[in-house]
Amino acid sequence: MKRFGVRGSLFAAKKSPQSVPPLLKDAVRQPNGTFNFKAQLAKGTPFVVQASTDLENWSPVLNGIATGELTSYADGHASRFSYRFYRLVGGQAQCSNVLGYVSITLPPGFSMIANPLDAPTNTVGKVFKDWPDGATLNKFDTALFRLVENAVKFSQWTNASERLMPGEGAIFFNPTSDYRSVCFTGEMPQVNLSIAIPAGFSMRSSPVPQPGSLVEDLEFPIANGDVVHLFDRDKQQYVLHPYENGKWTAGTPMISVGEAFWIAKTEPGTWTRKLPPVDVAASLDRN
Fold this sequence. Notes:
The protein is mainly beta.
């Protein structure tokens, strides 16, 4: 597996048809922090792989001419970031997906967590592998209005195939006295970056992995009477942020990547985010 910094080259290619849409796939983050993935490109296609931590400013990490359909890469610089995202520009076409990883540090006790990436491997049994008995993950059922618990018993999760999907949230309990890291990998949803927010209580997270103020930066559909409940992991307690008369009465809620929150909403709404378009020609010219 070849590693790359700002420049690199293609390798490990397979013979393929000429008409292959650019695609990133098979994301894996290694224990040492290296991020591995594969790129699908038609032979002879000029390409640029770009990386970003905010989905707005992208830097080239690899460019060249594709020698075949599937090419493997390893980003040795990924260990410097707790989250990073990648896109591929090949020929005159933008990659159809954005691939990446999000690592979350879980302190002893409770945390509210979120996974903004979609992948078949993001099951509780795989992401939270080797957790001891007593670890729990609770999601909120808005229909039954109750928390549904998934727990480690006899060294196994009671529902190992459960997944935490983009836009959802969960309460995780770390029964140990150690800070432990978990990592989600996969694609960022591209077709539907909208989340339904029901009236009443629900647990939600941003459909786009960006940090910032909930309304000004993340464009949450807030309304008078809504109350956001953030969880302070250090103090192990909730902090309430009511929204009244067009303003926050207890400070602006700031959301981190990989963080979920409770929302008590007076009326249902839809949380929609849009990513800036990619200028394919400019991306290739700059690199």
